[in-house]
Amino acid sequence: MKRILITGVNSFIGTSIENELIKYPMNYTVDSIDMKNNDWKKYDFSLYDYVFHVAGIAHVSNDKKLDDLYYKVNRDLAIETALYAKNSGVKNFIFMSSMIIYGEDNKYFNKKPIDRNSYNPTSAYGKSKLAADLEIQKLQSDSFNVSIIRTPVVYGKGSKGNFTKLQKMAKYFLFVPTIKNQKSMIYIDNLVKAIKKIIDNGLSGVFYPQNSYYVSTVDIIVETRKIMKKKTFRLRILNIVIWFLSLFSKKITKIFGNKYYQVFDDDNLIFDGYSFEETVALTYEGEKWRKSHFL
Known about the structure:
Helix content is 38%, strand content 16%.
């Protein structure tokens, strides 16, 4: 029996892993606590084998007024929680880091993969996540396993990230460029499998989970429009427009740029539960699509 404490409530990832683990009551007990005030320090962490830290402020804005909050929650609280867990005798700590620590997307004509050892966060959000990531790694010891998960974009039904936003906008894209950019992403079910594998096997270290395939922005739009029963036309001439706009707009670069992890032989957290097309449909329609195709 593995005892898991999720620090942070109502998060997309935390709720997803909890919903999976409680399917196996003979193997896991799962609790979660709110981290919004200091009451969490009254909680007895010594009862648990794993602390899975998901509490954090999402990257919702580059407003400088939020900088202090990013550091307070994403850095200071994360480090404090890890220290508290270690001092309480917890044996394993899992921290949700982010690909954002590597900086912005490359322009779509730059296909160079991420250098996993070269950090370049450009926002307070990214800098706060990196600071926590590196400091928590230092707590690794013979009696305290640390697992750092540097997730790319996570998507699935109920997610609030850019993937879902792009799907909502897809109905307006009758014409799309032929750009085939590459982005590392991970469907939520695949991420849950990765986290479960870390727990089941007591893995420690830095991990880079992703789908086995890279995702193209245009393909997200086209596949979503298929679900909407809408045709889409790919026009090569639009590539020139995107190239020109990307010279001046970071937002265009973020949408159509490249940002991906190269896959290495020792990457053992890559899963293939569904095809790309299936994950697009599941993210858009959820259980409605699942029931119509798997029951």
